[in-house]
Design a protein that fits this description.
This is Fluoride-specific ion channel FluC. The chain is mostly helical. The protein is built from five helices and no strands.
């Protein structure tokens, strides 16, 4: 049952991620992946905060945290895009992208936990 719950959530997350990739944007800087990862970080923070606060079942937590958030975030794509920026000789842009992704997504998780734990 847990595998099906995670798979269903993952399908939803992947569809949402793909939908963001359809936004028309032409530039070397991979802003759509950065936005997706930031939204995913905020979402997982909200899920964790709400699941603890409301004592969610294991399946509900797996559906949202592992399934939806796991299917939605794009860390593997982030890694590939950072590597691609280095390969096309844009090391400063690559480093900015890496720093922004890590810092903003950590802050996103903190923000998600904060807003979900407010009374």
């Amino acid at each position: 049952m847990e595998i099906l719950v995670v798979g269903l959530g993952g399908a939803i997350g992947a569809i949402l991620r793909y939908s963001i990739s359809l936004i028309p944007y032409k530039n070397t800087f991979p802003i759509l992946t950065l936005i997706t990862n930031l939204l995913g970080a905020i979402l997982i923070g909200i899920v964790v905060g709400i699941s603890v606060k409301n004592n969610w079942s294991k399946n509900l937590t797996l559906f949202f945290k592992t399934g939806v958030c796991g299917g939605f975030t794009t860390f593997s794509t982030f890694s590939l895009e950072a590597n691609n920026l280095f390969q096309i000789n844009k090391p400063v842009m690559a480093i900015i992208y890496i720093i922004l992704s890590v810092v903003l997504c950590l802050l996103g998780v903190m923000f998600g936990i904060f807003i979900s734990s407010r009374n």
